[in-house]
């Protein structure tokens, strides 16, 4: 009967199914009472321990227990239906997230490709300035790689503050500015500022948001997504080296700078497509609630506009930088580990042509090793992303095994005497690099939280940047002292093995006071 209404025995008490009685009323009273009933029931569900944390506190799909014989099922059943209040679908692990992965892949192709092909550019720079010493010329690469890593914490904080879109666009414009300013080619010092510092800062600013955003968009498929993202790095090495040779042959060094600047400018479009996850989540929820409005359009508009889940959503604000991680022993394991592993990655690959010449390989054969390593690295990063996403092998075990295999590969280099034996080394090192770069930020997100990636990943990359300034000089010093590459490769191999051992001790270190970590 439409002239009946729902009322409580006492206006001051919570409304419950057992307290529902029937009295005459208007249709509007039914709507108001139902709204109050659902609201009060939801309040009770909020007080229950059904809140889960995933970067924000969200009430997880409440359900309402009604009296077996409610007075007016035509309205109450619709309101209490799981389909009505189960909440919007998850915005993670699919959809627009794959667009973001593709965008980050392209950014990695361009930035990593530029760095991996910089050796070709460097040789032409030395042709312009033949009196340049190795130490002076090394400042260009040192500033390029060092700034790219050292500023990662600052760029991670900037991503949190201004968003990934602005960060990528501004970083791209800085890269383009550095390349265009290099066209006059005044001196090596001038190149160190433009091609080194400016481009390094721009690349750090455009690359860092990608690591953070992919982590936000994916949870169950995070390893697979990171495999695709990380594959952009070796793909850049495959494509950029021959492209730079062709550009410099047809347009000269200055013309090549202009052409590469034009190519990098396209990353502005990639930046525009890098939608922040919280905005994407809001879009998904709005679409869901629009659909729910249509499905219950016969009910009073006040009930149709009821967005209980949004009303009770509590945002967990991210910190731009959290320095308390330096007091967390399990996180310090990562920093100590990278102090060891960065001795070999990427130096073991960069010095392979030097060893190749020592055993009589031609420049063509050395180039084949570089191309093979990039192709192998690309395939193995995709494979690692797929296999570890299937949970066939524990992520931690795969990470440790990759470092050990890479260390053994470096240790056998002094035994290599021909092209084929060096290809075995290249295969083992490729597997090491693929597992390392595919899994390291997955492990950081799983163990310390995806919302802290700006800090955990930023400090990790900063440590790598410091090592990039120091380790090449140490390897060069060992080469000068020993007169060959045998001892340097033994040192690099042992550094990878020691890094694996340090990481394997993390479960024991996690028992120390002050440890904050999520272990499997």
Automatic annotation (TrEMBL):
It holds the Pfam family MFS_1. Residues 1-69 are annotated as: Disordered. Residues 20-36 have a biased composition (Low complexity). Residues 97-511 form the Major facilitator superfamily (MFS) profile domain. CDD domains: MFS_MCT_SLC16 (cd17352). GO terms for cellular component: membrane. Coiled coil: none annotated. It comes from Halocaridina rubra (Hawaiian red shrimp). The chain crosses the membrane at residues 95-115, 135-161, 168-191, 197-218, 230-247, 253-274, 331-349, 369-388, 397-415, 421-445, 457-479, 485-505. It is a multi-pass membrane protein. Residues 44-56 have a biased composition (Polar residues). InterPro entries: MFS (IPR011701), MFS_dom (IPR020846), MFS_trans_sf (IPR036259), Proton-linked_MCT (IPR050327). It is found in: Membrane. This is Major facilitator superfamily (MFS) profile domain-containing protein. One of its GO terms (molecular function) is monocarboxylic acid transmembrane transporter activity. Keywords: Membrane, Transmembrane, Transmembrane helix.
């Amino acid at each position: 009967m439409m002239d009946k209404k729902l009322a409580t025995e006492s206006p001051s008490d919570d409304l419950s199914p057992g307290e529902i009685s029937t009295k005459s009323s208007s249709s509007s009273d039914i709507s108001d009472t139902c709204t109050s009933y659902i609201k009060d029931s939801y309040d009770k569900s909020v007080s229950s321990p059904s809140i889960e944390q995933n970067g924000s506190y969200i009430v997880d799909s409440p359900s309402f227990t009604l009296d077996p014989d409610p007075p007016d099922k035509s309205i109450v059943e619709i309101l209490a239906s799981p389909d009505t209040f189960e909440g919007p679908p998850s915005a993670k692990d699919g959809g627009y997230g794959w667009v973001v992965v593709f965008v980050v892949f392209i950014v990695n192709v361009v930035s990593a490709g530029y760095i991996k092909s910089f050796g070709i550019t460097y040789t032409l720079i030395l042709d312009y300035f033949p009196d340049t010493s190795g130490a002076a010329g090394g400042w260009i690469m040192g500033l390029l790689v060092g700034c790219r890593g050292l500023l990662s914490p600052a760029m991670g904080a900037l991503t949190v503050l201004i968003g990934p879109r602005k960060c990528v666009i501004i970083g791209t414009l800085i890269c383009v500015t550095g390349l265009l300013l290099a066209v006059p080619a005044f001196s090596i010092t001038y190149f160190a500022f433009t091609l080194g510092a400016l481009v390094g800062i721009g690349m750090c600013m455009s690359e860092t948001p990608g690591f953070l955003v992919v982590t936000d968009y994916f949870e169950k498929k995070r390893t697979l997504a990171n495999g695709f993202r990380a594959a952009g790095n070796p793909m850049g090495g495959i494509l950029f080296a021959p492209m730079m040779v062709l550009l410099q042959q047809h347009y000269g060094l200055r013309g090549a700078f202009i052409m590469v600047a034009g190519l990098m400018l396209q990353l502005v479009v990639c930046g525009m497509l890098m939608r922040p996850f919280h905005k994407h989540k809001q879009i998904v929820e709005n679409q869901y609630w629009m659909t729910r409005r249509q499905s219950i359009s016969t009910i009073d508009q006040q009930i149709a506009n009821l967005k209980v889940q949004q009303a009770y959503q509590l945002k967990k604000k991210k910190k731009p930088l959290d320095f308390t991680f330096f007091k967390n022993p399990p996180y310090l394991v990562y920093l100590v580990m990278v102090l060891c592993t960065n001795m070999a990655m990427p130096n073991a690959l960069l010095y392979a042509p030097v060893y190749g010449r020592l055993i009589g390989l031609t420049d063509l054969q050395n180039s084949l090793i570089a191309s093979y390593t990039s192709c192998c690295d690309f395939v193995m990063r995709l494979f690692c992303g797929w296999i570890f996403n299937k949970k066939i092998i524990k992520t931690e075990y795969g990470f440790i095994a990759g470092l050990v295999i890479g260390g053994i590969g470096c240790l056998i280099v002094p035994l290599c005497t021909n092209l084929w034996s060096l290809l075995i080394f290249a295969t083992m090192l490729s597997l090491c690099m693929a597992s390392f770069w595919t899994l390291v930020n997955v492990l950081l997100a799983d163990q310390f939280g995806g919302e802290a990636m700006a800090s955990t990943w930023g400090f990790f990359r900063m440590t790598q940047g410091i090592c990039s300034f120091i380790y090449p000089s140490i390897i060069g010093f060992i080469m000068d002292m020993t007169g060959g590459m045998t001892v340097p490769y033994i040192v690099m191999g042992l550094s990878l093995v020691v890094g694996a051992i340090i990481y394997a001790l993390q479960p024991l270190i996690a028992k120390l006071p002050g440890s904050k970590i999520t272990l499997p």
